[in-house]
């Protein structure tokens, strides 16, 4: 087991995997990527949505055995259920009152992180969602590479009469003030179309490419080490020299030494690890940004499908048959709209108990949060089940957020009307804070070290020469759209900075 390496990456989700792939493809660096969780699938970071039900249940069952996922015996009956493959930060959280703190805050602890459980929507941000202080040409190039790594396509599902009629109906109603790139259209999805019409969803295996295969990794100097908690980053005079790691099954602690350290341990645990390491800049854990979210199930006024029945497909995989994107477009439509064509919702809720035999779409509207420094992670001297500083979240919706939610509820009715449908049961639902799973801002980047950001635009921690951060916590803007594509793009830009500064071509 190597303890002396060139690059140490903490966290194997989409952000960590991007650093690993980009550096392994372009340098001869010896890279170690550790993750506190186990491998849940036999491939490295394959998406669980591709599995048949039995294998999927087995993987989710294994995820529930992670120490942080344990549900206390005294949990109230109305305790919130984590999405499969995730565990709640506060396992005792209930959804009432709706917006006190962030009850649904969750994380994944396994090889591939949330990136093996995700729904794969990869729209590009626009307008105020974009990070304006970055070089826009470089940012666009990074988005293009990110789309290639994630295998993003708008042809994931075959175009059907139904999906085309949904897009046409939305554009009839919502095209005013949109340019061609922001009209309703098929959702860019990280997946590969398949002949049977069900795409193969990208996990972190897609990002790793050939490196998803153990023998290729061994040849090219990348090791992925599961069940390994990073307890602390070792630092001296603005230099990160390595980390203190713990092999969780045995409890054995050991040090590794590295020339460059990357932390990509999600938007909650990257700040936790920095805090545990005594790296505590003013903005650390602050500016916490979760997208408020409204959902509704809408019956589409289209002919009933032959043999239509709510439930899963015959082979037991999910029953999404298309995803439409109604893009964020200021000022009239300040929401990211996601319409899943299917028989059941992307989020577990039970408005539609009866099968009306008609197509349904699950509509989700994500809002851009009114960002506040005081929305934050708070760390205590107490320890969590892994011995890390215990976290609680202080989080509030502002008047602007509440006004945005009111507007979103009206927009749901407008979408329902555009599809000639009724919002089934008549009600759109505002989801408890944290449900988006898109937490951002907690280690955000900024153009200057002015106390409102944790890293430079290259994702390097201010005051450190060789400590880089990756993941949604790096995103400083109030995005409404799904963040993973942006995190992968920012990780690519950071990896380029590492290559330029530590592995220039003449050094290879
Ligand atoms: P993660 O994927 O969370 O990975 C972080 C990893 O770090 C974890 O594996 C964790 O075990 C590890 N780690 C944490 N602390 C330590 C430590 N101290 N030591 C060692 N390892 C550590 N996003 C989208 O853009 N589009 C979508 O459609 C979408 N749908 C989603 C649906 C679901 C059900 C879920 C769960 C998520 C979804 N997301 C979606 C969110 C998306 O998965 C995340 O944005 C993405 O995975 C974040 O990548 P990451 O690498 O920053 O973090």
UniProtKB/TrEMBL annotation:
The Glucose-methanol-choline oxidoreductase N-terminal domain, residue ranges? 131-292
What keywords were assigned to this record? Answer: FAD, Flavoprotein, Oxidoreductase
Under the heading Pfam families, the entry gives: GMC_oxred_C, GMC_oxred_N
Q: Which residues form a coiled coil?
A: none
State its cofactor.
FAD
**Protein name, as recorded:** GMC family oxidoreductase N-terminal domain-containing protein
Q: Which organism is it from?
A: Leclercia barmai
Keyword Kinase, does the record have it? no
Q: Which family does it belong to?
A: Belongs to the GMC oxidoreductase family.
Per the database record, which ranges form the Glucose-methanol-choline oxidoreductase C-terminal domain? 380-491
- Source domain of life: Bacteria
Q: Which InterPro entries match?
A: FAD/NAD-bd_sf, GMC_OxRdtase_N, GMC_OxRtase_C, P2Ox-like
């Amino acid at each position: 087991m190597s303890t002396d390496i060139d690059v140490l990456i903490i966290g194997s989700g989409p952000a960590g995997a991007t650093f690993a792939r980009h550096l392994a493809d372009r340098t001869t660096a010896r890279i170690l990527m550790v993750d506190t969780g186990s491998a849940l699938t036999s491939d490295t970071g394959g998406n669980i949505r591709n599995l048949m039900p039995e294998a999927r249940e087995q993987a989710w069952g294994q995820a529930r055995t992670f120490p942080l996922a344990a549900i206390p015996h005294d949990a109230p009956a109305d305790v919130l259920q984590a999405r499969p493959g995730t565990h709640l930060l506060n396992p005792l959280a209930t959804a009432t009152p709706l917006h006190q703190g962030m009850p649904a805050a969750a994380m994944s602890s396994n090889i591939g992180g949330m990136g093996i459980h995700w729904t794969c929507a990869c729209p590009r941000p626009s307008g105020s969602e974009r990070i304006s202080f970055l070089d826009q040409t470089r940012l666009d190039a990074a988005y293009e590479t990110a789309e290639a790594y994630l295998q993003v396509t708008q042809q994931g599902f075959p175009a059907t009469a139904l999906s085309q009629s949904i897009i046409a109906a939305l554009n009839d109603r919502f095209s005013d003030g949109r340019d061609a790139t922001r009209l309703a259209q098929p959702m860019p999805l990280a997946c590969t179309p398949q002949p049977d019409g069900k795409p193969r969803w990208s996990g972190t295996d897609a990002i790793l490419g050939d490196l998803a295969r153990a023998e290729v990794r061994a040849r090219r100097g990348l090791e992925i080490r599961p069940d390994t908690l990073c307890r602390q980053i070792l630092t001296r005079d603005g230099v990160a020299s390595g980390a203190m790691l713990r092999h969780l099954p045995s409890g054995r602690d050991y040090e590794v030494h590295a020339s460059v350290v990357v932390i990509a341990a999600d938007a909650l645990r990257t700040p936790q690890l920095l805090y545990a390491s005594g790296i505590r800049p003013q903005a650390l854990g602050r500016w916490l940004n979760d997208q408020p979210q409204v959902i509704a199930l809408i019956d589409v006024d289209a002919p009933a499908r032959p043999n239509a029945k709510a439930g899963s497909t015959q082979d037991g995989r999910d029953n999404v048959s298309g995803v439409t994107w109604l893009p964020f477009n200021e000022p009239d439509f300040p929401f990211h709209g996601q319409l899943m064509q299917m028989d059941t919702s992307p989020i577990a809720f039970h408005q539609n108990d009866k099968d009306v035999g008609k197509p349904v779409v699950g509509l989700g509207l994500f809002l851009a949060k009114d960002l506040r420094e005081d929305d934050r992670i708070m760390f205590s001297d107490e320890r969590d089940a892994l011995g890390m500083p215990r976290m609680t979240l202080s989080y509030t919706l502002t008047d602007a957020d509440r006004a945005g939610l009111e507007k979103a509820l009206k927009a749901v009715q407008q979408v329902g009307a555009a599809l000639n449908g009724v919002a089934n049961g008549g009600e759109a639902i505002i989801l408890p804070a944290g449900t988006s799973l898109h937490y951002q801002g907690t280690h955000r980047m900024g153009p200057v070290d002015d106390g409102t950001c944790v890293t430079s635009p290259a994702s390097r921690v201010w005051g450190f020469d060789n400590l880089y951060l990756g993941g949604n916590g790096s995103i400083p803007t109030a995005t409404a759209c799904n963040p993973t594509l942006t995190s992968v793009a920012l990780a690519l830009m950071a990896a380029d900075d590492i290559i330029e500064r530590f592995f220039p071509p003449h050094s290879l």
